[in-house]
Amino acid sequence: MEKPVTEARKEFADLVNRVAYTGERVALTRRGKVMAALVSAEDLELLESLRAGRIDLTQAGHPAPVEERPSPQHMPLRIAAEYRPGGPSRPPGFGR
Predict the structure, then answer these.
(1) Whole-angstrom Cα distance, residue 50 to residue 56?
(2) What InterPro entries does the record point to (predicted)?
(3) pLDDT at position 92 over 90
(4) Which of 50, 87, 92, 96 is deepest in the core (most CB within 10 A)?
(5) Is the C-alpha dihedral spanning 85, 88, 93, 94 positive or negative?
(6) What is the pLDDT of residue 50?
(7) pLDDT tens sequence across 15-61
(8) Other Cβ atoms within 10 Å of 16 Cβ, number
(9) Percent of the chain with pLDDT over 90
(10) CA separation for the pair 69, 27 (Å, rounded)
């Protein structure tokens, strides 16, 4: 998915949840050009391993099997936070 930076700023929390829970990648654009991307922690770890030379794709011979994920549109989003009204319960006689 591509998203202009100005739009992404308004939807940042939602975009982070989508990336974290569905693995979807979000390319952030400015004037139609991709400037940066939001990727899952798993994808970041893979990219860092590639850069550090711990993974050599030229010597691998066969591509790694790709884990099939349902498309993000068909996956339910989990709740990242939930509002619970009220505070801690108080013993009788306190805070009338």
Answers:
(1) 7
(2) Antitoxin_Phd/YefM (IPR006442), YefM-like_sf (IPR036165)
(3) no
(4) 50
(5) negative
(6) 80
(7) 999 999 988 999 999 999 999 999 988 888 888 888 777 666 665 55
(8) 14
(9) 28
(10) 19
User: Could you tell me if 69 and 23 are in contact, meaning their C-beta atoms sit under 8 angstroms apart?
Assistant: yes
Provide the 3-class DSSP secondary structure of residue 35: strand
Q: CA dihedral in degrees (59, 60, 61, 63; nearest 10)? A: -140
> What is residue 80's DSSP assignment?
S
Q: Which residue has the tokens 């068909």?
A: 74
Q: Kind and range of the H or E element at 8?
A: helix 5-10
CA distances 9 to 14, 40, 58, 69, 81, Å, are 10, 18, 38, 27, 19
Which uninterrupted H or E stretch holds 21?
Answer: helix 12-22
Q: Tell me the β-bridge partners of 3.
A: 28
The pair of three-digit structure tokens given for residue 51, joined into one six-digit string:
């850069």
